TrEMBL record:
Main location: membrane
ABC transmembrane type-1 domain ranges (all copies): 32-313
Organism of origin: Corynebacterium casei UCMA 3821
Gene3D superfamilies named in the record: ABC transporter type 1, transmembrane domain (1.20.1560.10), P-loop containing nucleotide triphosphate hydrolases (3.40.50.300)
Residue ranges of every copy of the ABC transporter domain listed in the record: 344-576
Cellular component terms per the entry's GO annotation: plasma membrane
CDD domains: ABC_6TM_exporters
Location of this chain's protein in the cell: Cell membrane
GO molecular function: ABC-type oligopeptide transporter activity; ATP binding; ATP hydrolysis activity
Keyword Protein biosynthesis (UniProt): no
Transmembrane segments: 31-50, 70-92, 170-189, 252-275, 281-297
Protein's membrane topology: Multi-pass membrane protein
Protein name: ABC transporter, ATPase and permease components
Length: 582
């Protein structure tokens, strides 16, 4: 059963953000400085309608006050507002972006340090979605909303203060509009977080479905499940549409509330303005300035409400990111494993993904230097056995030990020294060939690297002009599947584990260079305890013991000759495979 990573609560999110904020040198002083700059810019911005009101009074009274001087003051106010607001936005945005960058690094580091079985249980789609979609959504939200939130917040506060300073009766405008604004915001915030969180979760589910279909494409085709997988992806995609529509509908309702707030602001403002002019409390110019402030307030109010949509989506992403880092994995203490020998014991292991047993009551012993092959039809449980031995899954019952210690209790150093998994899906890291190989052994010499490349029969290396300095990966030379697998096997030779788990690691053996790849795999398993999930029966035939699996159980076991003599399932598989080759 899939166990997604949790979504952090607001106190947890606030705690993590506070920790990252403290990690930025001078964060508090930068924040205060940005607030001061934005405050000065907001005050200068309010001075603009006041100057326009003064112009109205000058024109009405035909006073001798120079319009040129007022115009100059108006231009100065506009320049000060623009300069200080932009300066404040820059300082605040730089600070928030640094915090987001630290949070992103923290999440990636935490994800890399998570126990592999924890990632597998949660589903790689969930982690991929949080690492890509949610990080991108959060970064976009910060970039888009920080300037608008700062500008809108200061504009609303300074406008309210300026109106009250003109005449206390303008307090009625605030009193009349504020309750409607609060009700609208509360109604929105009551339903919006859940709807946006559901939208992000549905996106994660869609990513998981797509990844499952891509990674399991061979199984999907083998069992004719194309239509079923298409329907699952369609259903997951439609869930995204429905949740997205629900979230946008919430924003539409909020827009209706904001129209009501705007109507109340202008109506009450006009009434108060009329009364103050009639009583002589304010001049026509002052009231004009007040109404201009209210009209100008429409932009910040609407801007603030509009970005709430982005803020909610960004917060949903932030909560999902913090959900990964809120409880970082504690370093596994050394289990006190004895010197590495490579003795493997799988004892009466059973495991379920939630619906029936994937493997049931499986036992196998692999001594140092022995190779055990696992064969069977797709879905028989072969890969699950490999995952249990590699520590990718925790058995529901039974035990999996290497050198007498449970695999899942080994520390990273103990596990790396003993155990390595090579699968069909290998990755060529971007960088030079030397950097790629040194991931397995940072202190490896060029001679050692050249030696392991020779041992895996990487003849293509001889044609590289730059040798170990050749840039490979996404930004360099694109290695074909056989070469990429040989590179992965060379890394394993540098790592030199005592136990090797090979899950269809030679699946490219049907392509050009098949024999070289097969020889490389045999070079890796030589002298080591090896569990090989074999898709080619000629590979299995050379193993010291063969396990034949069906429906999660071991139905036959023995050497190649013993299983042929028994005339059981393995012999039928071998006969069918030989006939297929012919």
């Amino acid at each position: 059963m899939s166990m997604r990573f949790p979504t952090a609560t607001w106190p947890e999110t606030r705690k993590v953000l506070g920790r990252h904020l403290r990690q930025v040198p001078g964060a508090l002083s930068q924040f205060i400085f940005s607030i001061v700059l934005l405050g000065v810019g907001a005050v200068a911005n309010i001075w603009i309608p006041i100057q326009l009101g003064r112009i109205v009074d000058v024109v009405i009274s035909e006073a001798s006050t120079s319009l040129v001087r007022i115009s100059i003051e108006l231009v100065i106010a506009a320049l000060v507002a623009a300069i200080f607001s932009a300066w404040g936005f820059f300082v605040l945005s730089r600070l928030t972006e640094r915090v987001i960058a630290n949070l992103r690094e923290n999440m990636v580091g935490t994800a890399l340090g998570l126990p592999v079985h924890r990632v597998e249980d949660a589903g790689t789609g969930d982690l991929v979605s949080r690492s890509t979609d949610d990080v991108a959504e959060l970064s976009a939200a910060v970039t888009e909303t920080v300037p608008i939130l700062a500008n809108s917040g200061f504009a609303i506060v300074t406008t309210a203060l300026a109106l009250i300073a003109l005449d206390w009766q303008f307090l009625l405008v605030v009193v009349a509009a504020l309750p409607i604004y609060v009700i609208a915001a509360r109604r929105y915030l009551r339903v919006a977080p859940g709807r946006y969180a559901a939208e992000r979760a549905s996106m994660a589910d869609r990513a998981r479905r797509v990844l499952e279909a891509i990674r399991g494409r061979a199984t999907v085709r083998a069992f004719g499940m194309e239509k079923d997988m298409h329907n699952r992806i369609h259903a997951a995609s439609w869930d995204v549409v429905e949740h997205g529509y629900s979230a946008r509908r919430t924003m539409f309702v909020l827009q209706l509330w904001m129209t009501s707030v705007e109507f109340v602001l202008l109506t009450v403002g006009l009434i108060v303005g009329f009364i103050t002019v009639q009583t002589g409390s304010l001049t026509v110019g002052a009231v004009t300035a007040a109404m201009l402030m209210l009209i100008r307030l429409r932009g910040p109010l609407m801007g603030l409400m509009r970005v709430l949509d982005t803020v909610q989506s960004g917060y949903a992403s932030l909560a999902r990111i913090v959900g990964v880092v809120i409880n970082p994995p504690q370093p596994t203490k050394p289990a006190g494993a004895p010197p590495k020998e490579g003795h493997v014991e799988v004892s009466e292991v059973s495991f379920s993904y939630g619906e029936g047993w994937a493997v049931e009551d499986v036992s196998v012993t692999i001594k140092p230097g022995e190779t055990v092959a696992v064969v069977g039809a797709s879905g028989a449980g072969k890969t699950t056995v490999a995952a249990l031995l590699a520590g990718l899954r925790v058995p529901d019952s039974g035990s999996v030990t290497v050198d007498g210690v449970e695999v899942t209790t080994l520390s990273d150093a103990e596990r790396v020294a003993r155990l390595a998994l090579v699968s069909q899906e290998v990755h060529v890291f971007s960088g030079t060939l030397r950097e790629d190989l040194s991931l397995a052994k940072p202190d490896a010499t060029d001679e050692e690297m050249l030696a392991v490349l020779k041992r895996v029969h990487a003849d293509w290396f001889d044609h590289l002009v730059d040798g170990l300095d050749t840039v490979v990966g996404a930004q360099g030379l694109q290695l074909d599947p056989v070469a990429a697998q040989q590179l992965a096997l060379a890394r394993m030779l540098l790592l030199d584990p005592k136990v090797v788990v090979m899950d269809e690691a030679t699946a490219e053996a049907g392509s050009q260079g098949a024999q070289a790849l097969q020889d490389a795999a045999e070079e890796l398993t030589r002298g080591r305890a090896a569990l090989v999930v074999a898709h080619r029966l000629d590979q299995a035939s050379r193993a010291d013991e063969i396990l034949v699996m069906d429906n999660g159980r071991v139905v036959e076991r023995g050497t190649h000759e013993q299983l042929l003599e028994s005339e059981g399932r393995y012999r039928h598989l071998w006969t069918a495979w030989q006939r297929g080759r012919e």
